[in-house]
Amino acid sequence: MLSKKIITIILLFTSFSNVLLAQSDASAVKILSKVSENYKKLNGFTGLFEYSYSTEDEGLIQTNTGNVTVKGEKYRLTLNDQEIFNDGKTVWTLIKSSKYKEVTINNVEDDADELTPSNVYNIYKKGYISKLIGSSEINGVPAHEILLTAEKENARFKKIKLYIDKAKNEILAWEIKDDVVGTFKYTFKELNPNVKIVDDYFVFKASENQDVEVIDLR
Q1: Which strand (E) or helix (H) includes residue 28?
Q2: Dist. CA 71–CA 44, nearest whole Å
Q3: pLDDT tens string 71-82
Q4: pTM of the entire structure?
Q5: In what order do the strands lie in the sheet with 213-216?
Q6: With the C-alpha atoms ordered 9, 184, 194, 189, is the resulting torsion angle positive or negative?
C-alpha cells in the first residue's frame, strides 16, 4: 500500500477550473498560475528528491530518495526497488527485489483520483481549494506556502501543501495528506529544468531485461 501511494506522487500543475478559481484564494491562484506557466515552457525536466512518510500514531516510518524525469504526459520514476515507465499510452511498473523481478504492463487510464507526473498538471481543477497560508524557508530559500484542500471527503489526498520559490516560481517541496491520516513529504535536492529527453527513454525495453517476468494486463 505504501509503495503504491509513493509511486503515484510527484509535482507540478497547470490550469484551474472556473469553479475552483471562484472558491480559492486569489493570491494562491496567481502564484500557481505563474508556476504553471514556468513548467509549460519546459521541454522536460529531471529531479532528485527526498521523500518520507509518517503518521500521527507511529511518527516517521520511511525516508528515502528517488529520481523523476518528465516530458509532457510522459514520465519515468525511479525508487528503491521500483521503476515506473509511462509513455503516455502504456505504463510499465518494474519491481526488482532479491527474490524476483517482474514488470506489469497496463494501459494508461484517466483516473480523477490518481496523482501522477502525467496528470498532476490538471489535478487541481478536479476538486481542490487553494489558500496562501504563509511563508517559510526551504534549505535557505524563501518560499510561499499554499494549501490545497480536497472538496470531497472521500478524496485520496485530503490536503496538499506546496512550498514555492518566491523568486523563481518553482516548487521546492510539498506535503500530502492521504486518506489514512498519513503524511508524505517531498523535497527537491536537485532540479534540472528544460532538459531534452528522447521519447524512447519512457519505454520499458523487454529485450534489455530478459530476466524479468512480464505480466501484461492490457
Answers
A1: helix 26-40
A2: 4
A3: 988 999 998 889
A4: 0.77
A5: 128-138, 141-150, 157-165, 171-178, 182-193, 45-55, 59-71, 74-78, 82-86, 90-96, 101-107, 213-216
A6: negative
